[in-house]
Design a protein that fits this description.
heterodimer; A: 247 residues; 2 strands; B: mainly alpha
Amino acid sequence: MAISWYRYASPATFLPVAERLAPAFAVAAALLALAGLYVGFVVAPTDATQGEAYRIIYIHVPTAWMAMFVYLVMAFWSALALAFNTRLSAMMAQALAPSGALMAFLALWTGAFWGRPTWGTYWAWDARMTSTLILLFLYFGVIALRNAIDDPRRADRACAVLTLVGAVNVPIIYYSVRWWNTLHQGASVSTAGSSMATTMLTGMLLMSLAAWMWCIAAALWRVGAIILERERGAAWVDALPAAKGAS
Amino acid sequence: MSAYAFYVGMSYGACAIAIVAEALMLRARRRRARAEAKA
């Protein structure tokens, strides 16, 4: 059975889908996080060199990965919005920005609290950390730019351009540990394999999946609200039972 | 764990607070959007 994707490009069609799917992704995130925390704190052994401080990896790496990934997804929706002038694509990009900013902030925060016991400092102007800080500022910039422009369609276009220009920072973050001598360690997981113990890797991947599921749930809930905010007054919104009933 | 409890606790604690805050803010925004759509 072929799916008509164009049908779901309509906010009116997508809203009920988003509201149905979001709770399922949130439950999946909670279950995966519980499993990841169990593996990370109970099953995985203490690290030989870093001791218990290494357990920050189960929250630091997933948030750092999601900060970059969410930005790339935002850039994808922004490109679609610019190319096809689709409202829902811009709304998706708008919905992702706060979650991406949160992930970038948490990556920096947990990195600081991991850096202090292992490197002796909360912060260094190292290429990986600085480029991740720039990513956080890019998220803030996109959110601020949208709030600064009254016309939503103009804001969509301006934010899409800024998002696409800023996307160049993502490969810089990823390759920073190869291009420059950084205090930050190189990648423990790559397409070539992993240098981590299996239990540690399992815990980290479970937590990464949890972070991924949460970002999807949050984006779907947020885009639902954005749709209602931006389509207010439309006949289809007035006809929505969800809009008429109690929350 | 005790030597590193502060660092691990600050990391996980901040994440828990942030996720709960995001969930609560999302719920409030959705409720407001629905109420305004109804008005």
